[in-house]
Design brief:
Blueprint (H helix, E strand, L loop, with lengths): L3 E6 L6 H12 L1 E5 L18 H6 L2 E2 L12 H17 L3 E5 L3 H8 L11 H14 L1 H11 L1 H4 L7 H14 L3 H8 L7 E8 L2 H18 L1 H11 L12 H8 L5 H23 L6 E4 L5 H10 L1
Helix pairs in contact: 3-4, 5-6, 6-8, 10-13, 11-12, 12-13
Length: 304
């Protein structure tokens, strides 16, 4: 029998952190973050990390442990997350995965061993140069020809993931989809019980817009300025939502009003893609994000 692990996922701003903490307090659980931006040190406001108070209420792992100038892969996340889950179980506590990064979650619930492909920096620079000369649309079409299945979940303006599709094929001669299919043969290590938070789309978008306004008020622009002063390079960190738009503002490519609206728009688009992603989990249980009895619903379902 595989050990049971609870997963709380959902789109950004749907209340995952709050529900995870409530559940952890009820079942003596500890939280393993599943967020590709909250891993970074010095990036707090724009990543909506759990606050110090929230971390006191429930122990959180895999938050604030990677430097923004370091690379961190999905395969590294899977290794770190499974090790952490194992340690939590050994300590007699219940592991709860909380977050919305689809690739991270897939690596766990499907048991995907993403190959830790060494980055060909020359090829990456070649792709970056092409983006600057040709625009991203050509590379999007090229990636779609190579791996149309993977590209179904990637938007036409998601530069980081588009380039990754091309890099994987360049380095391995196989598509990302082929590599995933090859790696799923062993299956997941644990029995994952997946719960997805959901709400009316308009309410979700309103929450996203308000969250962005709060991030700006709380000092997101100054946070980005400090990051740019402290670190010389950002392999992936500055591609995060909110951060790349602030950089564009600081480079006078956007006005402040344009920057704020762009962050809101891109975050709403991201939330829509997340919802589509989570719909692929056949056995997931969808929860009304505003239901005060969600903890009880989860407990009832994991006991059955």
């Amino acid at each position: 029998m595989k050990e049971q692990v609870i997963v709380i996922c959902g789109p950004t701003a749907s209340g995952k952190t709050s529900l995870g903490i409530k559940l952890a307090k009820k079942i003596e659980g500890e939280i393993v973050s599943c967020d590709s931006m909250q891993i970074y040190k010095d990036m707090t406001i724009g990543t909506a990390k759990p606050t110090d108070e929230e971390r006191k209420e429930a122990k959180h792992y895999l938050v604030d442990f990677v430097m923004p100038n370091e690379r961190y892969s999905v395969s590294e996340y899977k290794k770190d997350a499974e090790y952490t889950i194992e340690q939590i179980i050994k300590s007699g506590k219940k592991p709860i995965i909380v977050g919305g990064t689809g690739l991270y979650l897939n690596s766990l619930v499907y048991g995907i061993d993403y190959p830790n492909i060494e980055t060909d920096l020359n090829y990456r620079q070649e792709l970056e140069d092409r983006v600057n000369k040709e625009g991203l649309e050509n590379l999007y079409k090229e990636a779609n020809k190579i791996d149309s299945k993977a590209m179904e979940k990637i938007s036409s303006n998601d530069k980081k993931r588009i380039l990754r599709i091309l890099e994987i094929y360049h380095s391995t001669g196989k598509t990302k989809t082929q590599l995933e299919e090859d790696s799923r043969k062993n299956g997941p290590k644990y029995d994952y019980k997946i719960f997805v938070l959901n709400m009316d789309r308009e309410k979700l978008y309103d929450r996203i817009n308000k969250r962005v306004d709060i991030m700006i008020e709380d000092g997101l622009i100054d946070e980005v300025k400090q990051l740019l002063k402290k670190y010389k390079e950002f392999p992936t960190a500055m591609q995060g939502l909110g951060y790349k738009e602030v950089v564009e503002y600081l480079e006078n490519k956007l006005t402040k009003v344009e920057m704020i609206e762009k962050i809101k728009q891109e975050t709403r688009r991201y939330a829509k893609r997340q919802i589509t992603w989570f719909k692929s989990y056949e056995n997931a249980i969808w929860l009304d994000a505003f239901n005060e009895n969600n903890v009880d619903i989860i407990l009832k379902n994991i006991e059955n």
